[in-house]
From TrEMBL:
UniProt-annotated binding residues for ATP: 198-205
Domain of life: Bacteria
UniProt source species: Arthrobacter stackebrandtii
SUPFAM superfamilies named in the record: P-loop containing nucleoside triphosphate hydrolases (SSF52540)
Organismal lineage: Bacteria, Bacillati, Actinomycetota, Actinomycetes, Micrococcales
Protein name, per record: DNA helicase IV
Length: 746
């Protein structure tokens, strides 16, 4: 019986792959066609062909990316029809539906139907493929009249098979085994902010990625031009997840770690918890505003300026009036500078004219050069810059933190201790908590080129005003819709429209990455508990319609600037416009290890959501007590046992930052290139990382070094140790020179 069914499914799946190959060949043919014609015809013809070429290339890339496990399910329905569910939709040449895209409404029952609520489904079949071959099938029979003796197919559950598979250092999609509580979240409406709270391993990252793919599919018209931004905690994490969306047939999502959210800056410098917390406070927005105002200075007294041998006087009053006029434009600093400079140049030119006329010197021809004389005077240029210096965000923030007199001037109300937390050397590398400050500065400074390329500056200023108007209009429309109880997402089209500013041949994603003012249609934030209020302020700027998916676990917060509750973190930015969903099942960590992590957190006085683990493991956590100088050696000694236990899987050593380098070196002496460390080293089978880098990742086996140090480094929170303990899918070992934190051992 089973073999017959298997043979039938194999034949059907062969047919699906043949169709996929046919479509691929078609696209290759079409692409070849437009490429051959490319150099001919008018400019318009060429650009049309370029557009077609891009379209075919995208479709071809999508067809290539979905090859692995193309299909994973089949539904048998009450009406006698069956329906195959796969990564994309496929139809035969005569438009017969062969396979439904998992995101289509009619595929929803594959994830939602239960024996209690069948939703018209008699049987759900999981097809488990290896390469292009169906290796096994497994049925959930929902209609019990179908349960004929001997017909109920057995086999290891598709879910457990996925969970028990060895980790590769890259996240896989879960499209074949999405559980119903996850599916409900993935398919939630687009508008507003959705917060997904869930303990470790509950699939938050998986859900966030599948939701991004779902939203792009379901709201393609609204989202394709504006784009979707996905924000994660670190570059190692972004690398870990980077293959998931392409495997779901989506390549257009813009992905950025928190440190990369400001174009042109890669912020990775470490920083103390106290400094990060202080820089993350909302009060820093005012500090940055003060720093900008500080660059709009008045001279202490009237100044004399030399213009071609003539002495002119610039009064404090004149400068103040010009400053007020420039500020009244409401433009950002660099753009308002034009008004400031023009006003003073005009007044100084007038003064020069009066001097020359009074002296009876010069003729009309000379006078036309007066303006130029004033503009090119060294004294005048220096004075104008001193009073209103054009600035880049980088220079503003760097000066503010490295020049004590500026720092003191812009931080009234701060204590000396707080100022010393902010102080640093000029040109010091950027940290993650600098990113929102740079963004805030860029917002207040505007574009640099305000006097040089005037046409460009005024076009840019016009664009900014248009953008601001559109945002205002959106806010109004949203408010009206909200007041009348209607979903407010009509506005994404408008967004898309005003993003199409310089419609170049770039994709939205490419443009969005380099454009700080890009307004996304939706933003997905992973590990969101780590974000400071200033980070949230930046993210809301990136998505004025406030359409967000926010996933995280409050108990895993380890940043001192991070969230204590979702309410506290989000209310300042979203008001009450957010809803909370919870995920309750832990798919990663075996019960023995998950329970030890919860006991440890509880013993430290922290309440954590304790999701139910779907699997029991083979081992309780293993503990090695060693002398203070024996920790590194103990890790090296334990490694053969650990790698053997996970049989070729991935092993991670999670160490306090201070021990990472020494441990990596000691392990390399034995294992050479098998040892990776730091971001992007997940291809090796043994890695050494610190708790920050471990966020969001998972490994077959984990060795934690000095758990007490992880607790101590986290400023009273259990986040780092809790995160580290919940990374393994199979085995956990702790190597400690101090008494173990309470709760870990039963
Ligand atoms: N429905 C599912 N089917 C198969 N695997 C799943 C499913 N849900 C989650 N998983 C697997 O469970 C593991 C944990 O998922 P994920 O990393 O998304 O959890 P998380 O909630 O983001 O965890 P953390 O907060 O601890 O980083 C991953 O290997 C993921 O593929």
């Amino acid at each position: 019986m089973y073999d017959d069914e298997l043979a039938k499914e194999r034949a059907y799946v062969d047919g699906l792959y043949s169709r996929l190959d046919e479509l691929r060949a078609e696209k290759v043919e079409q692409l070849g066609g437009v490429r051959r014609e490319k150099s001919m015809g008018t400019h318009q013809n060429r650009s049309e062909r370029d557009a077609f070429a891009t379209l075919y290339e995208d479709r071809l890339a999508q067809l290539n990316a979905v090859d692995d496990k193309l299909v994973f399910g089949r539904l048998d329905l009450d009406d006698g029809q069956d329906r195959y569910i796969g990564r994309i939709g496929l139809s035969s040449e005569d438009q017969r539906q062969l396979m439904v895209d998992w995101r289509a409404p009619e595929a929803g029952t594959f994830y939602q139907a239960t024996a209690f609520e069948r939703m018209g489904v008699r049987r759900r079949r999981h097809l488990m493929l290896q390469g292009r071959t169906v290796k096994a099938i497994e049925d959930d029979v929902l209609d019990h009249t179908m349960l004929v003796e001997g017909e109920h197919l057995q086999g290891e559950g598709a879910l457990l098979a996925a969970l028990n598979s060895k980790r590769t250092g890259r996240m896989n999609d879960i499209v074949g085994t999405i559980q119903s509580e996850q599916d409900r979240i993935i398919r939630s409406p687009l508008s507003g902010a959705l917060v997904v709270q869930g303990g470790p391993g509950t699939g938050k990252t998986a859900v966030a990625l599948h939701r991004a793919a779902y939203l792009l599919y379901t709201h393609r018209e609204r989202l394709q031009a504006a784009g979707v931004l996905l924000v994660g905690p670190s570059t190692a994490f972004m690398k870990y997840i980077e293959r998931v969306l392409p495997s779901l047939g989506e390549t257009g999502v813009v992905m950025a770690s928190v440190g990369n959210l400001f174009p042109g800056v890669r912020a990775t410098a470490p920083e103390t918890a106290e400094t990060a917390e202080l820089k993350g406070r909302l009060a820093m927005a005012q500090v940055v505003a003060n720093a900008v105002a500080n660059r709009q200075r008045l001279p202490r007294e009237d100044v004399r300026l030399d213009v071609e041998g003539t002495r002119l006087i610039l009064t404090v009053r004149q400068v103040r009036r010009a400053r007020d006029k420039a500020r009244a434009t409401g433009l950002p600093h660099n753009e308002a500078r034009l008004t400031f400079v023009k006003t003073l140049l005009r007044e100084l030119t007038e003064q020069l004219r009066e001097h020359i006329e009074a002296a009876g010197a010069g003729n009309n021809a000379d006078r036309s050069y007066l303006g130029e004389d004033v503009r090119s005077s060294r004294d005048v240029r220096i004075m104008l810059n001193l009073c209103w210096m054009p600035m880049t965000p980088q220079k503003l923030i760097d000066d503010m933190f490295s020049k004590p007199e500026i720092l003191a001037a812009v931080t009234p109300g701060f204590t000396e201790a707080e100022r010393s937390l902010l102080q640093r050397a000029p040109g010091a590398p950027w940290s993650e908590s600098d990113v929102p400050l740079l963004d805030e500065a860029a917002e207040l400074l505007g574009e640099m080129d305000a006097t040089g390329g005037r046409a460009q500056a005024s076009a840019e200023a016009q664009r900014k005003r248009d953008l601001a108007n559109a945002e205002k209009a959106i806010a109004n429309v949203n408010q009206q819709l909200e007041d009348s109880g209607v979903d407010g997402m009509l506005t994404a089209e408008q967004l898309a429209d005003y993003n199409v500013v310089e419609a170049a041949a770039q994709t939205s994603a490419e443009r969005a990455l380099t454009d700080r003012t890009w307004a996304y249609g939706h933003v997905v934030v992973d590990e969101a508990q780590e974000l400071s209020p200033m980070h949230w302020r930046l993210l809301v700027r990136r998505c004025p319609v406030k359409s967000f998916t926010i996933v995280g676990d409050i108990a895993q917060t380890s940043s001192a600037a991070g969230a204590i509750s979702w309410q506290q973190a989000l209310t300042p930015f979203m008001g009450e416009r957010w809803t909370l969903e919870e995920l309750t099942v832990n798919y990663r960590t075996p019960s023995q290890i998950a329970e030890a992590a919860v006991r440890m957190a509880n013993a430290a006085g922290q309440v954590v959501s304790a999701p139910k683990a779907v699997r029991d493991g083979e081992w309780e956590p293993i503990v090695d007590h060693v002398g203070a100088d024996g920790v590194v050696a103990a890790v090296v000694a334990a490694m053969p046992e650990e790698t053997a236990a996970v049989g070729g899987g991935l092993v991670a050593v999670i160490a306090p930052l201070a021990l990472v380098a020494e441990t990596t070196a000691a392990l390399r002496e034995v294992y050479g290139a098998r040892i990776g460390h730091g971001a992007g080293s997940l291809e090796q089978d043994i890695v050494v990382i610190d708790p920050h880098e471990a966020k969001g990742l998972e490994f077959d086996g984990v060795i934690i070094m000095e758990p007490v140090a992880l607790l101590a480094g986290a400023g009273g929170r259990v986040g780092d140790l809790y995160v580290a303990m919940t990374r393994p899918t199979r085995r956990l070992r702790l190597v400690t020179s101090e008494p173990l934190p309470e709760g870990i051992v039963r």
